[in-house]
Specification:
The protein is of the alpha+beta class and 155 residues long. Helices cover 39% and strands 17% of the residues. It has five helices and four strands; from the N terminus they run H-H-H-E-H-E-E-H-E. A four-stranded antiparallel beta sheet has the order 2-3-1-4. Helix 1 packs across helix 2 and helix 2 packs across helix 3.
Length: 155
């Protein structure tokens, strides 16, 4: 995929509709973007082939599933060798509680977004993580309220 996909206004309208509700019918998308079904389908297929559109999924409500606690976990490590990093990344990727993981510039090396039922479940996650890899410092921040959460990108 090129650094920036070459998208025209119709492509952008299609992407906006798909981000709002990827489950809507092709007929509905075509009507909303002012086109017909076949060109819309061809554009969607092309954007998938280019990597603009990734996998499709559904967004679940964590509270409804009993996953009421969201922690942001700040990790500092004194280890920077490839073996440590491989073990750390494997551990993080294997943990279903980790929704996001980012390597950062600055004083904090990594930040994780972790969704669990409660503080006890977070502690179980934490204990498993430090069994897998040596970590210099961990700070867990409990989100008191989710103010905004979206997967919609500005296109």
């Amino acid at each position: 995929m090129p650094a920036h996909a070459d998208l025209d206004p119709l492509d952008r309208k299609i992407l906006k509709e798909l981000q709002e509700d990827a489950g809507q019918s092709l007929d509905d998308i075509a009507r909303k973007v002012g086109s017909s079904k076949t060109p819309v389908w061809n554009r969607i297929r092309k954007m998938r082939d280019q990597g603009v559109i990734g996998r499709q999924t559904v967004i679940l409500d964590p509270d409804s599933l009993g996953l009421e606690a969201c922690f942001f976990v700040l990790i500092r490590t004194a280890e920077h060798d490839p073996d440590w990093q491989d073990r750390f990344l494997a551990s993080v990727r294997a943990r279903p509680e980790v929704l996001e993981a980012h390597r950062l510039a600055g004083d904090i090396d990594y930040i994780l977004k972790v969704r669990v039922a409660n503080a006890r479940a977070y502690d179980a996650f934490y204990q498993a993580l430090i069994r897998d890899v040596k970590i210099h410092n961990v700070t867990a921040l409990l989100s008191m309220e989710e103010i905004k959460s979206t997967t919609i990108l500005s296109v």
